[in-house]
Structures are given as structure tokens and as C-alpha cells.
């Protein structure tokens, strides 16, 4: 499976301060797990995929380039957000990674 290598490198760099990070090829891209839980990833179509608090879905999808993620044409649910990464500044990427890490820290779901 091909994925956006540049985006994966940027995500990897953004997660360097985390102690427990693993990479797995899945969902058509490269996903990053923190503390054993899926957190963020780079997709083949140049999107940032991240796991977030479903209660923040409306707020987060109102941001530029963000929407509820789909896989195979099916909605993945309010806790998965896809963000068009082509225009993401390093600051924007860091903000999105913080959103995912915050939920990761508070979540009990793997």
C-alpha cells in the first residue's frame, strides 16, 4: 500500500516526544499508534487521518480541509477525521496531532 511518505515523516517528527509510538500499515496508509492506540496516520491520497473525541466532531470538521473520514465510501464515524494535508503548515499539523494525542490520553479504547 502506498501512502504519503512526506506526510508520514512529518507525523513521525511531530510524535518524537512521545514514549510509546509504533507504526503500522493499515487503512490504505501508514498509521501511528501511541500507547497502543491508533492516533494519526498518512493516507495514500494525501490526507492526515486522526482519531479524536467524537464529541468534538462538528467543531473539528468545521476547520478548513477537515471532514469525517471515509473508508471504501463508508463513513468511519465521528471519531475519525481526515484532513487534506497538502496545505497544512507545521503549526497546523502540530495542532491536529495535539487534538489526537489529547483524545489518546483520555481514551480507554484501543
Please give a quick description of this structure:
With 110 residues, this protein is an alpha+beta fold. It has helices at residues 5-14, 57-61, 90-106, and strands at residues 21-26, 29-34, 37-43, 47-51, 66-68, 70-71, 74-75, 80-84. It is built from three helices and eight strands; from the N terminus they run αββββαββββα.
Can you describe what's shown?
The protein has 3 helices and 8 strands. By secondary structure, it is an alpha+beta fold. A 6-stranded antiparallel β-sheet has the order 1-2-3-4-8-5. A two-stranded antiparallel sheet has the order 6-7. The chain has helices spanning 5-14, 57-61, 90-106; strands at 21-26, 29-34, 37-43, 47-51, 66-68, 70-71, 74-75, 80-84.
Query: What is the tally of beta strands?
Result: 8
Instruction: Describe the sheet with the most strands.
Output: 6 strands, antiparallel
Please give the radius of gyration in angstroms: 12 Å
Shape: globular
* H and E string: HEEEEHEEEEH
**Low-confidence runs:** none
In what range is the share of β-strand residues? 25-35%
Essential attributes:
alpha+beta; six-stranded antiparallel beta sheet
Amino acid at each position: 500500500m502506498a501512502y504519503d511518505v512526506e506526510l508520514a515523516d512529518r507525523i513521525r517528527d511531530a510524535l518524537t516526544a512521545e514514549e510509546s509510538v509504533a507504526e503500522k500499515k493499515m487503512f490504505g496508509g501508514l498509521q501511528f499508534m501511541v500507547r497502543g492506540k491508533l492516533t494519526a496516520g498518512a493516507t495514500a491520497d494525501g490526507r492526515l487521518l486522526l482519531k479524536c473525541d467524537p464529541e468534538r466532531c462538528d467543531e473539528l470538521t468545521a476547520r478548513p480541509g477537515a471532514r469525517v473520514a471515509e473508508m471504501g465510501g463508508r463513513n468511519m464515524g465521528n471519531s475519525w477525521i481526515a484532513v487534506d494535508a497538502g496545505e497544512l503548515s507545521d503549526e497546523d499539523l502540530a495542532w491536529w496531532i495535539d487534538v489526537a494525542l489529547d483524545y489518546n490520553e483520555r481514551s480507554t479504547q484501543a
